[in-house]
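B., you asked whether I could sanity-check this one before it goes into the benchmark set. Here's the sequence:
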Amino acid sequence: MDPRIKNNNRRFMDEERLPEKIYIWDETMRGGEQSPGVIFDEKDKVELAKLMDEMGVAVIDAGFPMMSEGEREAIKALVELDLDAEVGATVRCEKEDIDTALELGVDDLYMFSTTSKFHLHYKHGMTEEECREKVIEAVDYAKDRGVKFDFISEDTTRSDIDFVKDLFNEIRDRGARRLIICDTASSITPEAMYSFTAELIDQIGGKWGVHCHNDFGLAVANTVSAVQAGVEYPTLTVNSLGDSSGNPAMEEVIMIAEKLMGIDTGIDTTYLYELCKMVERKSGLYLSPQKPICGFNSYRHESDVHVSGVLAHTGSYEPIDPEEVGRQREFVLGKHSGPALVKNLLESKDISLSDEEIEKVLKRIEEEKTFDRQWKIDEFLDTVEDYNQEMLGFPEDRFWNIVDEEREK
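And here's what the prediction gave me:
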C-alpha cells in the first residue's frame, strides 16, 4: 500500500476474500468497439494488443468472429502475434461460432449465453431449461475439441440465482476455467454485487470474472466490489468504451486495486496514459478533461489552496504520483490562482514583486480569462455536436440512398 495513502480500506475488507493478485482482462477490442461510431481495424488492434501485452495485460478478447470477415482477419492477426497475454475470442453457444473461432487458430473461447428469464423470453423465446440444454451441448462440443473455454452468463444480476448456481456448477464440472458474472443492464448496486458474487463463489468455487456496464455510473464500483468478494478476472475497457454508457475503465480499476486495495495487477502503470491516448485517437471518442487518470485536467492545479498544498507536499492533494501513470504535474494560471503560484513562477526567474503588484497580476489574469469566454465555449460545443452527429453514427438519408441504389442494380 502506498504510504502516501493513509486509509482504513484494508481494515474494512475481508482479507480472506481479497485476492492477492488480479488479472486484467481487456474488452476494448470487442465490447469497447460496440461504442456507436467506433471502429478498430486490423492495424489498430495489432498496435493496441502489442502495447497491452508490453504493459502486462493478462487476457485480450480479440473480438467476435461472427461479426464480419474483417473481424475474423483481425482476430487471426492477433492470435498470430504470439503474445504473452492470452488472446481469445467471444462466441455464442453455437457450434458454428466455435468452429469459426477454431479455424482462426483461437485456443481460448469466451462462450456466452443469457441466463435471465427477461432476456430468454424477449430475445430468444426460450425457457431456462431450453437455455441449459443449449449451453451444455455447446460446452460439451467445445470440450470435445480440446479447446480451453470460459462461460459468460449474460444478465446474471437479473437472473434467478438458483438457476445460475445450477448452470454454473454443471459448466464448471465440464471443465470451464472461469465463470463470468455480468451486470448487463446495470441493475445492481456495489453492496448487492459484493453479496451476490460472494454467494456464487462460496457455493461453486473455481476462478471468477466480472463484466459490468455503466448506465448508472457504477461499473467501476461494481467491479471493485466483485474483486473484494474474490473475483480475480475483471473485464475492462480502456477509457470506459462500450455500448451505451460503456464498461468499467481499465485505468481506473487498475489504480484503485494498486493504490487503494494493495492488490497486484501485474500492470506497468507508467504505460496507462500512452494507452488511453492511443485508444482516444483510434476510437475517435475524446476524453473529458476531468476523466480520472488520463483526462487533460488530471494533475493540473489552479486553485491557490491546492497549489499551496501540492507545493508543500504533493501528497496533500495527489493520491497518485503523476509519473506513476505516465503523466506530469502542471500548475495552471486562472481565476482561482493565488500568490503561491505567482511567487513560485517569479522565483524560477529570480524576479520579485511586491504583494500589491502580485495582486494586480492576478487581477489581470482573471480579466483576460473571463473576457469573451462564453462565445468560445458555445463555438466549441457546436463543433462537438457536429462531430458527434457525423462520426458517431450514420446518416439515415444516406442509408436510404444506399437501399435505393442496391434495389436499382
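One thing to flag: The CA atoms of residues 125 and 162 lie 21 Å apart. Otherwise nothing jumped out at me.
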